Amino acid sequence: MPGKTPDKEPVENGGYRGGNAKTTKGKKAAKDGEDEKMTVVVPPSKKQSSAPPPNDADGDVAMDVDEADDGEAKVDPVVQTVNDIKSNFALLDRAVALFDARFSLRALRSISSIRKRLTPDILARAISETYSVSSLSASAAKQVLAAIGRSDVSLGRQSSSEMDVDSEPTKTSGKNGSAKKESKEIIPEVDVFFGILTQVLLHDTKQWQQGAEYSQALIERIQSLNRRTLDSLSAKVYFYYSLFAEQLAPLPPSPQSPVVSIRPTLLAALRTAVLRKDVDTQASVIVLLLRNYLLTSHISQADLLVSHTQFPDNAANNQVARYLYYLGRVRAVQLRYTEAHEHLVAATRKAPSSACALGFSQTATKLLLVVELLMGDIPDRATFRAPNMEVALHPYFLLVQAVRVGNLEDFESIISEHAETFRRDSTYTLILRLRQNVIKTGIRMMSLSYSRISLRDICIRLHLGSEESAEYIVAKAIRDGVIEATLDREKGFMKSKEVGDVYATREPGEAFHERIRACLALHDESVKAMRFPMNQHRLELKNAQEAREREREMAKEIQEGDLDEDDLGGDFEGM
């Protein structure tokens, strides 16, 4: 022990060095004191783990262990993405076996996370590992490979993980296992799922023409298959089919735009979906047709579509929000502001709260603000203070300020300054209608501030051209009920009436009734959205009937003397 170096004694003996430090004397006391400090630094857990090599003092073993952990934690992102794609095949199989669309919807929801890592090489690898050359769906796989520019990739390639795991068992078990594995045919739902991934990839890489051609071929294949388990997937196919058509030249609102040429296809799909009670495709195609008509400003055709079709009640929440938004735009253009306001409020409430749907929430809120201004109301200031809305709604905040004050000059300057933003939001034509509202607001402010004011002062304050225009506008405001006043044309002034108590009118009761109606409608929609087990009431009736039969039999046996209460355990209480 004394001959060994102090570097190795703590590793071999653990806490033994502390005892030697107290018994050593002379010149070794200082050295042993340094050894005591070293025993505190070295943790005892590493000493007891295993016998260290001679060079353990340099910490090589700990570094080797860390490097091994890092090597095990690394996962190839390509392999992970391919496995994520393949993991959805089990969901599609269950959707076909159980005839339940919820599993197909779960597979579709995974696309949002896959598309961030999706590349042509990854998609080609997943296809080559899924399909075999002798598969019946090999033609569909080759069509996908041709669409993404990977026609040279061969089918039937085995993944690296399967080669590592299955190489030994195939030698011992023979060819039966591999033959059984190859004999499993790919269901058409998997083909369409790969087709949707191809559409997503072509859309993200902005290959509009290639995407439109492939989408047309994919729709024809879905129509030829005629499977009800493809309903949820076909709705997504039609969605991307319409998106590709919107990006092809000439762009809307040109009447020669390809969005006009796809309308017969969408109308045929809607007719077929209604006959087959395909809720997903029906809701998706109705929304796409409304968007199609609005892109080319065909408001009358959009109104006819809404009047001749019935949007499904049990449609997905996202489709309901889109439908309400487009319907609100149609009603706003038709000057039916009250209906437009109801639809847009419902659309903003049903909008998803996730960050991916922030653009829809902002667009719907912008149109809602304009409609509220057209109705003569001033939007709540808290709407503009939301963290995710403050920047996007800044031009509309300035617009609301100008309308609230009734300053026509500021209103026109704001329109000229932010005209490009309003055109991009498709609200420019509606905002131009606000000029009369600004004038009415200004007149209302003056009627509250002055008991009597001349038409000349109104003309100067509102920057009107002449007193005749001011007289016409004041008369129209009085007739519409905007202000409570009388107009003296001979003397040229407006005299305001005394404002009464608003609580003496029907307005508070109507507002309270409107809130109650909104709460009841929300309750009804929540009940409709709940899922109930199929035929559960029949099972409960059957169990109750069986229980009554058993009670009758037991009562009969008691009456005949075959049983008594002691035999029943004392729990029988009779009929």
UniProtKB/TrEMBL annotation:
InterPro entries: CSN3, PCI_dom, PSMD3_C, TPR_PSMD3_N, WH_DNA-bd_sf. GO terms for molecular function: enzyme regulator activity. Residues 1-11, 29-38, 545-559 have a biased composition (Basic and acidic residues). SUPFAM superfamilies: Winged helix' DNA-binding domain (SSF46785). The keyword DNA-binding does not apply. Gene3D superfamilies: 1.25.40.570. Residues 40-50 have a biased composition (Low complexity). Keywords: Proteasome. Residues 1-63, 157-182, 545-575 are annotated as: Disordered. The keyword Transmembrane does not apply. Residues 560-575 have a biased composition (Acidic residues). One of its GO terms (cellular component) is proteasome regulatory particle, lid subcomplex. Residues 321-501 form the PCI domain. It comes from the Eukaryota. GO terms for biological process: regulation of protein catabolic process; ubiquitin-dependent protein catabolic process. Coiled coil: none annotated. Belongs to the proteasome subunit S3 family. This is Proteasome regulatory subunit C-terminal-domain-containing protein. It comes from Podospora fimiseda.
